Amino acid sequence: MALLSVQNLEMRFGEKLIQRDVSFEVQAGSIFAVMGGSGCGKSTLLRHLVGLLPPASGAVLHGGVDYWAATDAEREAMRLKFGMLFQSAALWSSMTVLENVCLALARQTALDEAAQEARAREVLEWVGMADAADKLPASLSGGMKKRAGLARAIASEPPLLFLDEPSAGLDPISSRRLDDLILDIRERTGAAVVFVSHELPSLFAIADDGIFLDADSKQPIAHGRPSELVKARVHPTVDAFLRREAPPDPPAPPAPGDPA
Ligand SMILES: Nc1ncnc2c1ncn2[C@@H]1O[C@H](COP(=O)(O)OP(=O)(O)OP(=O)(O)O)[C@@H](O)[C@H]1O
């Protein structure tokens, strides 16, 4: 059974349709990319998947259980099985990096305080943030914030991680380090990862599978591994995105006097 199954999701804000017919599955241990141009609905899709916003229709199944049809107790149990890194890292600003990770562990595990701290230090070491454990988020660089957010998301070793633009705003070397870290997390914990990204090097380096949401037709127009999609030239918009080419021109309007 798929770890995550998304079935015929329709996403809208009021009357405004964002995407329809969104369906895909994520298997244990795979790295799945959510791609598409700005404003096509990638972050909104993640919010539907992690329980922050109900979709207009369709189903989101975590381990075979429909999240939006589940009881509060079932949802709580499902939430313990995934971690999330938000675009802004969303660290608690008045707490140190270590306290941020410990608080997540207090919420998600039955570890006592000493064990939480030991585990938090271990995870911070793993993401290269051991020296920043006692710092407040405001004093961290963008890349360090992302790594601290990642440490918080993976501390309880959830089988599924959602990462919203993990490498956005990072320089190419920090971005590459973060990609390596994501691969390392998958290797060590076997976690599946669903990530939103505009970064071509990341998409090609780490994604095994993915979906491309089209802002114009408001539906997915490609599904597969980014490196295969770019070879297969599946759709001009996907090609433009993955090759960083100018998007295709819209069809020219008929010139006055042209036959209809
Ligand atoms: N709370 C909201 N109310 C109304 N419209 C919204 C809301 N949040 C997002 N939108 C709209 O929904 C669409 C999708 O937004 P979303 O942030 O999911 O796109 P995205 O693909 O993640 O964009 P980007 O790549 O720029 O981050 C946009 O047109 C956005 O303006």
Structural write-up:
It is a single chain. The protein is α/β, with parallel strands linked by helices. It folds into 2 domains: 170 residues, P-loop containing nucleotide triphosphate hydrolases (Rossmann fold, 3-Layer(aba) Sandwich), CATH 3.40.50; 71 residues, no CATH class. Helices cover 37% and strands 23% of the residues. It has 9 helices and 10 strands. A 6-stranded mixed β-sheet has the order 6-7-8-3-9-10, sandwiched between helices. The chain has a 4-stranded antiparallel β-sheet with strand order 2-1-4-5, covered by helices on one side. A hairpin with a 2-residue loop joins β1 and β2. It is globular. The chain binds adenosine-5'-triphosphate (ATP). Adenosine-5'-triphosphate (ATP) binds next to α1.
Brief digest:
The chain is an alpha/beta fold. It has helices at residues 42-49, 72-79, 97-108, 113-126, 142-154, 172-189, 200-206, 226-232, 236-243, and strands spanning 4-13, 16-26, 31-35, 57-62, 65-66, 82-85, 160-164, 192-196, 209-214, 219-223. The model has no long low-confidence stretch (mean pLDDT 89).
